[in-house]
Automatic annotation (TrEMBL):
PANTHER family hit by this protein: SEC-INDEPENDENT PROTEIN TRANSLOCASE PROTEIN TATA, CHLOROPLASTIC (PTHR33162)
Family indicated by similarity: Belongs to the TatB family.
Disordered, as annotated region: 65-115
UniProt-annotated location(s): Cell membrane; Membrane
GO-annotated molecular function: protein transmembrane transporter activity
Domain of life: Bacteria
Record's keyword terms, sorted: Cell membrane, Membrane, Protein transport, Translocation, Transmembrane, Transmembrane helix, Transport
Function: Part of the twin-arginine translocation (Tat) system that transports large folded proteins containing a characteristic twin-arginine motif in their signal peptide across membranes. Together with TatC, TatB is part of a receptor directly interacting with Tat signal peptides. TatB may form an oligomeric binding site that transiently accommodates folded Tat precursor proteins before their translocation.
UniProt name for this protein: Sec-independent protein translocase protein TatB
GO BP, sorted A to Z: protein transport by the Tat complex
Topology in the lipid bilayer: Single-pass membrane protein
Main location: membrane
Classification via InterPro entries: TatA/B/E (IPR003369), TatB (IPR018448)
Length: 115
């Protein structure tokens, strides 16, 4: 974040020692450290909360895509069980077609050839 080297810290310490004085410097350093720690914890807390929200949004998007793909699979895939139509279940006598092919005798009489 901030690029503060050792030399800069020494200069800041010397200025603080001269301005604040040797008696109050330890108390000011503790207070400053406390505030820096609170700021870091607050920043970390906000960052973690944002990360959690992003992960939650990603999971919602994945679940939404999965639900959409499953509904498309249901539309595109044929049903597992094949249901017979009404005409097939009624039988050939009621106008429906027989699921079995005609026998050789029936084919011969239809074409006019003797069996």
């Amino acid at each position: 974040m901030f690029d503060v080297g050792f030399l800069e810290l020494v200069v800041i310490g010397l200025v603080a020692l001269i301005v604040i004085g040797p008696e109050r410097l330890p108390r000011v350093a503790r207070t400053a450290g406390m505030w820096v720690g609170r700021a870091r914890r607050a920043f970390t807390s906000v960052k973690e909360e944002i990360d959690r929200e992003l992960r939650a949004e990603e999971l919602k998007e994945i679940m939404r895509k999965q639900a959409d793909s499953q509904s498309l699979e249901r539309i595109l895939e044929p049903p597992a069980k094949t249901h017979r139509s009404e005409a097939d279940s009624v039988g050939p006598g009621a106008g429906g077609k027989s699921p079995e092919p005609p026998s050789t005798e029936a084919r011969a009489t239809e074409s006019g050839d003797p069996p």
